[in-house]
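Researcher: We're reviewing a set of sequences before deciding which ones to prioritize for further study. For each one, I'd like a predicted 3D structure that I can look through quickly. This is 3-phenylpropionate/cinnamic acid dioxygenase small subunit. If possible, include the structure in token form so it fits the rest of the review sheet.
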Amino acid sequence: MPTDDARVQRLVDRAEINDVQLRYASGTDSHDWELFRSCFTDEVEVDFSEGFGRPVARMKADDWVRGTAPRMESFAATQHMITNLVITFDGDDLATCVAYVRARHHLPNNTGGSDQTVYGYYTNRFERTSHGWRIAKVKLTALWMTGNFGLFQAALAPEESAAPA
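Model: Here's the predicted structure for 3-phenylpropionate/cinnamic acid dioxygenase small subunit, in token form for your review sheet.
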């Protein structure tokens, strides 16, 4: 049986990992890229291959943030809801958090409906750093999507595809 100190530390670790997951969503939706960046180790593995067809890539977190920002800022609004967090530990300094996600994207446009929603879960690998827990690997598994599947392309397309305000 772990000591009381170890049990308290595990609760603190869980709370901090939970906070990082929520900062990830809040930073994305509020376009607070400093907050979003605070979620990651200096290098991060990004896996959006399921549902989006993007190859798994290992990159500097700053590059990941610079690539994510224009995509998310292209939408009129987004809302990432993260729930049902299940955190497992692999020793004192590594953890995995599996969490449901419902990511809504809104963009009035001329290509179809204005909304697209991704339903799935994140399987994120965390490492304890000198700055606290950080995501070292982010993996999104999209189980299904609804709405206008062309919305991501419309978000990054020239302004003529966007509907008038």
